[in-house]
Amino acid sequence: DELRAFDERVRKQLGGIDYDYVVELKIDGLAISLRYEEGALVTAATRGDGRVGDDVTANVRTIKAVPLVLLDGNKIPVVLEVRGEVYMPTSAFIELNKLRAEVGEPAFANPRNAAAGSLKLLDAKITAARNLSFFAYATGQVSEPLAENHYQTLQRFKKLGLPVNPNIKKAKDINEVIGICLASSEKRLKL
């Protein structure tokens, strides 16, 4: 089993250090990077080739789930790069393909392609009408540490007004991870 082999490697590398796992449902969307400076969104880019991506700032600004300004009251790093996933919920995907069929346009093959295509449109008004959503899942460049571990980072994101996957669970060991994964397989199909 791949998960048990992974757990063995982690335990060996950590040499007895106590750790928890964080289990998150995989969202099939488009990876993006949001750059906030002094709490304000300044740029949004796709991952591209891993080094250089497309500037999609204008279109990302139309996604209701992406805050243009992070919430006050929390110590916000001067520079905070948030990595996350732009995706199209299943209900929005079905509705979009229905509308496309009505006007004789070809259907999108899947929600990921629809989300990716929507972000790259030249008209942000069309992107806004596509009902895209976003989950934050990691940091990139930060001017100062945001949290001590991944779970704390996700909790900090929520306090800053950044949406995170609501299906996040902490697990004490690999058996608990496997149990969460098995129980979550049905939920993933409904996103």
UniProtKB/TrEMBL annotation:
GO terms for biological process: DNA repair. Residues 1-190 form the NAD-dependent DNA ligase N-terminal domain. SUPFAM superfamilies: DNA ligase/mRNA capping enzyme, catalytic domain (SSF56091). GO terms for molecular function: DNA ligase (NAD+) activity. Keywords: DNA damage, DNA repair. InterPro entries: DNA_ligase_AS, DNAligase_adenylation, DNAligase_N. This is NAD-dependent DNA ligase N-terminal domain-containing protein. It comes from marine sediment metagenome.
